[in-house]
UniProtKB/TrEMBL annotation:
<dbReference type="InterPro" id="IPR009081">
    <property type="entry name" value="PP-bd_ACP"/>
</dbReference>
<protein>
    <submittedName>
        <fullName>Acyl carrier protein</fullName>
    </submittedName>
</protein>
<dbReference type="InterPro" id="IPR036736">
    <property type="entry name" value="ACP-like_sf"/>
</dbReference>
<feature type="domain" description="Carrier">
    <location>
        <begin position="3"/>
        <end position="78"/>
    </location>
</feature>
<dbReference type="Pfam" id="PF00550">
    <property type="entry name" value="PP-binding"/>
</dbReference>
């Protein structure tokens, strides 16, 4: 599931937020992808809606996460951990 989840979140970044796909690696921090504040909010909103996960307690720190950590966070919420 994590691979599919990673691909889906990558697709949101590339297709919806126009992030260069070459920049998205597991170790890249979300805040280094040059998303403005509106795009960052859109990322959170789309991920929450698409995967039906509650990220509200983590929203303030999402920019500091790496792409891989974001995928793991969403995966943990999907798993109910």
């Amino acid at each position: 599931m994590t691979g599919d989840l990673s691909s889906a979140i990558r697709e949101i970044l590339v297709d919806d937020l126009e992030v260069d796909a070459d920049l998205i690696t597991p170790d890249v921090r979300i805040d280094s992808l040059e998303l403005d504040s509106l795009a960052a909010v859109e990322l959170i909103t789309v991920v929450k809606e698409q995967f039906s996960v509650d990220l509200s307690e983590d929203e303030s720190r999402l920019g500091k996460l790496t792409f891989g950590e974001l995928v793991e966070l969403v995966n943990s919420r999907l798993s109910g951990s």
